Each structure stands twice: as structure tokens, then as C-alpha cells.
Amino acid sequence: MASDNSRAPEQASSAFGLRRTSFWFACVAIVCLFFADVELGTSNPWHELQLMAAGAISPSVWSWSAFIASLANTLAFALQGIALAAIGGFLLALGYRFTLVRGFCAFIRSIHELFWALLFMQVAGLSSLTGLLAIAIPYAGTLAKIYGELFEEVDTAPASSLPSSDRQFSLSHFFYTTLPLAWRPMATYTSYRFECAIRSSAILGFVGLPTVGFHLETALGEGHYSDAAALFYGLLLLIGTLRFWLQKSLVPLYLIAAFYYLPPQATISWDFLRHFISHDLVPAPLRDAVLLDPDTAVAFAAWCSQLWQQQMWPGLVNTLVLGQISLVFTGVLALLLFPLNSSLFLNRWRPLGDSMLILMRTIPEYMLAFVGLLVLGPSMLPAILALGVHNGAIIGHLVGRHSEQLTLRDDASSGLNLYFYEVLPRIYRQFLAFLFYRWEVILRETAILGILGISTLGFYIDSAFEEFRFDRALALILASAALNISVDQMARRIRLRLHLKTAPESL
Amino acid sequence: MDSPLFELHRQCLRYQNKIVLNDIDLRIFRGERIALLGGSGAGKSTLLKALRQQCPAEVAWCPQQPGLVPMLSVFHNIHMGNLQRHGFFYNLLNLVKPLPAARSAVDAISGPLGLHEQLFYSAEQLSGGQQQRTSIGRALIQQRPIFIGDEPVANVDEYQAAKLLELICHRHTTVVLALHDIAHALTYCTRVIGLKKGTIALDAPSAQLRASDLAHLYDAE
Q1: Which residue of B has its CA nearest to A9?
Q2: Chain B contacts of A5, Cβ < 8 Å?
Q3: N or C: which end of chain A has fewer CB within 10 A?
Q4: What is the chain A residue with the closest CA to B118?
Q5: Domain count, chain B
Q6: How many other CB atoms are there within 10 angstroms of residue B112's CB atom?
Q7: Is residue B101 assigned to a domain?
Q8: For the domain that residue B159 is a member of, what is the CATH number?
């Protein structure tokens, strides 16, 4: 039996590693709590909550034409965006073997669609083109990654059995073997991403585009909770009924309708565009300056140091602090919620439980945070709750589904004993895999919530846009992109080290 | 004579909606040690399941596949047989830090099973034999009068198997074991039941049997 023990240390690291990693992440989150502003920003949250509840049970549409138009716009942006993203993502995925392409994809998806929208708005205004590109660009990066990974994972046997003179990548081989094999998961994932695109599209309204979010922000901000409720239910209905109306054969029809209804256009002055890129986005001290002049260097250094000290550093720190707390909170919620979608714990009620999870994930975190801020007042608390609820429901739904695959002994215990002794240890690895896969998304969202006034990177970026300091805005956006890329890399490393596999069908 | 512990009267037993045992008549009494023999697919596991369902509260069950939780330690996997005896918070705390009472209960089992050294190894680090002993440990710790095991010693070596069967028989008044080793059946059990072609082909006290009497149970059809 001595020989059996020889493999102990290597495998011991796996179960032990999972626990150790969780422990350190929890510790970091607790330390972060000391630095975070998580106080109640208002003395009486119940008052606002009562008003909202009253609104929620008495939805009213103030103008049907505006109501329908905002939903139609939301849908049109999402459809066009995901279509363009699917094409772009597919083309990029063909070159996913190249580091440069992978890096490019990582870069474009590390910038949130709201940041893209804020950038394009300066050039193309609040136009349909702005909305389309803001969704299509980051989504193309995400889809390229997923498609690329799917292409790498397909069974290689059919391809290797084809007659071939050399082992070079052949496009016809690709279309005959790899693509058909990967098609189904690609379609599934793209349709899930479409659901996300509807959420993104709705959120774009919060920065001024004519989607649901635009009217929702006004209604919420002015306390017209009945109007807000109607818009909100409209959005839920749109997403909730997706599986009924999103039929493969109807997709081309929807696309034609979307482009006919809202043709992507904008009046762009090319002079203005050139000026924006070559002047506005360039750090102020470098504009029209002699590059090798020592004065320029001094001024540039001062610009950098001021930006770093006053905005970038506090923004990065707050983003990380809020992001880490939210990550751990998301994990805790996911573990609490997953039994809702597991027949090990719920039998007859499971469809209802899962519907609750799906409802929670349907509400965009940005919207949740906006409502949270109205109720709880300005602090990080609403942001943590919003990120936790939205992401916790997504992961809980997936973990629950994963737990269905477990086969338990006939004499397994029940209830809480079953949860802690049989199920939790078994699903924990997969749970961590999902959570680390979601880490980057949580951080991206954390940055964006700054636009609502929480002092993460988004706050400084939004202020820079408001002050027309586009050079600062660009630098800060690049900083948030760098942060997201490093977190993505780190999550990847941790997943590899802990041997965590992810089936990314809906993350 | 006592009333039987288990009784099947002209019963048909199904596995995944297919009848595997037809018209079975069987009575098992307290104090008997029964070996269930038969080729693979003869319906041993199905019969054991039917027996188990007759008095689940008195049976300690040991399945063919250990069904351990791979990430948890041997200690926790054995303690799992005892979950019902403790309150939930006790179990939860014990999961984080082994508690003295649970520890001594498990120690009493792990010693004879030869698992003392590996008590805090996670189950996935164990060899097949060690996993099987852990699974037996989960059954032993329940301290129930009846032990029902489906090939409980299939993955351990000859010497270990003998010791484990002795231990199982010593700690339970009634034992029902599906076995594939004829010598084990004759040595440790008082009665042998042979299954073949969906019926009980043989049912006799082991004292009256020799190994050659049993070989035909495994003949190809």
C-alpha cells in the first residue's frame, strides 16, 4: 500500500488548494471591507422602498408610443450588435491561434460597452451607429474567445482522418469538420449572449441612447415608480419570453426588421473625427508640442503624476476593493442559491426555484445598483448587493444544473447534512471554476458602476467625459482595460493550477 | 422459530423496468450469515436492494461503488454514516474541525480497518482498496444489527478480505453479502443462495456445500 501513498502529495494539493484559495479570497474580501464605504447612506431606506413597492404593484404606461419605441430600440440595438459581433467574432476566432489576435480580442472585450458608447458618442453623437458599435465591439471580443476555444476543443479525429498532403490549416477542412462539430455549442452560446446584449442595450439608455434605460433613468430619478415598473416589466417580458420567439428560422427576419427599423447611421464630420483622434485624445501636454523638448517632458510627467495620484490610483484601488468584496459575496450567494435549481433539494418546486434565479439574473446589475442607490443612499453597499444578486443567480443556476449530474449512494443523508457532506464538497471545484470565469466580468461591471457615483474607475472616466478632458478619459479607460486583462490572466492561471474546467455555455 | 427478518413471497424484481428475478420466494432470519452468489447480471444487486427496502432503519448498507465524497477526508467519509445521530450544527462544526466525540467514534472503526494512518487523507488520494475499506467503515459506524454488502471486499487483497469479512460478521448479528469468491462464501457464511437465470438456483447451508457444488452457478448459458 506504500506505493499508493506516493501519489498523495500531488493530489493532496488539489482538494487542499481549493480550500486554501477560497480562504485567501475570503480574507482579502474581509480586509477590503475595512477600506470600503459600506454604510447606509440614508437614515430611512423604508420610505423609498415603500414608494417603489407601491409603484411595482401599479405599473402604468405614460405613453404607449414611447414605451413601444424604447423596447423596439433596445431590441434593435441588441440584434444588430450581436449579429455584427458574431460575424466579427467568427473571423477573429479563425485566427485565435495567434497571440496577437488573442491579445486584440482580450483588449476590445476588456472595455465595457458603456465606455465604448461614451467614446463613440463624442464623434457620432447619440446615434444608432454609436449604439450598434458599443455592443458589437466588446461582444465580438467575447464571442471570438468562446468560438476560438470551442474550435480548439472539438474532437480532432474527423479532421485527422481526412486525406491531406500537409498538416497546414485548411479552410475547407475547417468548414467540413471543425465548424459542424462546434456549431451547436456556438449557437447556444450566441443565443445566451443575445440575452446579455438585450441587457447591455437597455443599459446604454442610461448614458442617453434611446433604449429602455433612458426612460427608466428618468422615471426612477424623478420618483415615477409606476412608469419605471412598466418599463421594467416590459424588459423582463422581452427577455423572459426569449426562448419562445427566438427561433432559428426567424432570426434573418428579425435582423432585416431591425436594420430597417433602426438603420445604423450617424452624421460624422471627418474633420471632427480627425481632430478628436489627433488632438482631443492626446494627453494635453503633448498636443502640438515638440516631442523632444524637455519642457514637454516635464509637463507630461506632471500630467501623468497628477492623473495617477488624483484619479487613476484611487479609481483602481476602489475598483479592486469593491470588485473583491462583490466576488466573494457573489460566491456566497451562489452557494446559498444553487439548491433552488437542484432536484437533490427541490422536487416539485424546482421549476419555480429556477425561475427565481433566472429572474434575478435577468435584471441588469447596473439597474439593480441604480435602484439600490435610491433606496440605500450613496455607498458601495448597493453596488455589492447588485453585483452579488445578479452574478450569484447566474452561477447558482449553473451550479444547480451541475449538481444534477451527481449520483449519490442510496443511503445518502438528506437536508442540510446532504448539502454540506455530500453535495457541497462535490460541486465545489466546478463552483470555483464558474466563479473565476466570472471574475473578470464582475470587475468590468464594478468599474462601470462608477458612473452612478461610486468612486470606482467609471466615476473618474465619466467625470473626465463631462469635463471634455478626453485625454484623461482615454487614459483611465485604458487603465481599466489593463486591470481587466490582468484579472482575466490571473483567473486563467488559478483555474489552470487548480485544474478547474469550465464549460462556458452561459457565463 | 422467529418471524423472518426479510421475506419475499413470489415476487418479481425489476432493474430499470426489466424483470431480472422471477417469482422469488425467500426468507431470511435473524442471526443468519448469507452469501449471495451468481454470475454478473444474475440480479444480486437487485435482490439486495429489495431486501434493504424491507427494513431500511436496521440495515447498514455497503454498495459496490464506494460512493465516497472524493474531496473529504476518510474521517468525514466514515462519519457520514453517523450524521443522523448528531444535530446539524454539530455536523457542520465537525466538517470544519473534527470534534472529539466524532473523532473517537471514527477511531474505533478506522483502527480495525487499518485506516488510521490515512484518516485525514482526502478520499481521492486513496487506493481502490483503501476506498473500499472507508466505505465499509461508513457502514460499520452505524452500528446496526444487519449488514448488507454488495461485493464489499472485491477490491482488496486476499489477506485484507479475510480480515474485513471477519470484522463485518463479528459486528453484525445478520449479514447478507453478494460475493464472487466461493471460498469466502463457504468460510464466513452460514447459508449460500445462488442466483441463475432469474431464479434462486441454490439455497443451502454452507456446511453441506463444497466449492465444486457452486461452480455451475457461473457456467455460461
Answers
A1: B125
A2: 118, 125
A3: N
A4: A5
A5: 1
A6: 18
A7: yes
A8: 3.40.50.300
Confidence of residue A381 (pLDDT cuts 50, 70, 90): very high
Confidence band, pLDDT 50/70/90 cuts, at residue A10: very low
- Do B150 and B45 touch, CB atoms closer than 8 A? yes
Name which of A7, A409, A417 is nearest B83 (Cβ-Cβ): A417
What are the pLDDT digits (tens) for A141-185? 999 999 998 888 887 777 666 665 555 567 777 887 788 888 988
**A12 with B129: Cβ contact below 8 A:** no
Q: Could you say which of B63, B71, B130 has the minimum Cβ distance to residue A409? A: B63
Contact present, A212 and A235 (Cβ < 8 Å): yes
* Rounded Cα distance, A490 and A488, in Å: 5
Q: How far is A2 from chain B (nearest CA, A)?
A: 10
State the CATH architecture for A17-58+269-507. Answer: Orthogonal Bundle (1.10)
**Chain-centre distance of CA A499, in angstroms?**
24
Residue A480 has pLDDT above 70, yes or no: yes
B83/A413 Cβ within 8 A: yes
**pLDDT of A397 above 90:** yes
Give residue A285's pLDDT: 86
Question: How is residue A237 written as a grid cell?
Answer: 417580458
Distance CA A126, CA A69 (A): 16
Domain ranges of chain A: 17-58+269-507, 61-158+172-268
Convert the pLDDT of each residue in B154-166 to its tens digit.
Answer: 888 888 899 999 9
Examine residue B73 and state whether it is found in any structural domain, yes or no. yes
Q: Which amino acid is at B174?
A: T
pLDDT for A320-370, tens place per residue? 999 999 999 999 999 999 999 998 898 889 899 999 998 899 889 999 999
When CB atoms are compared, the residue of A7, A421, A429 closest to B95 is A421
Nearest residue on chain B to A420, judged by CA atoms? Answer: B92
- Kindly state whether residue B158 falls inside one of the protein's structural domains: yes
Asked whether residue B68 is assigned to any structural domain, the reply reads yes
Q: Domain of residue B185: give its range.
A: 6-218
What class is the A61-158+172-268 domain?
mainly alpha
Residue B22: how many other CB atoms lie within 10 Å: 14
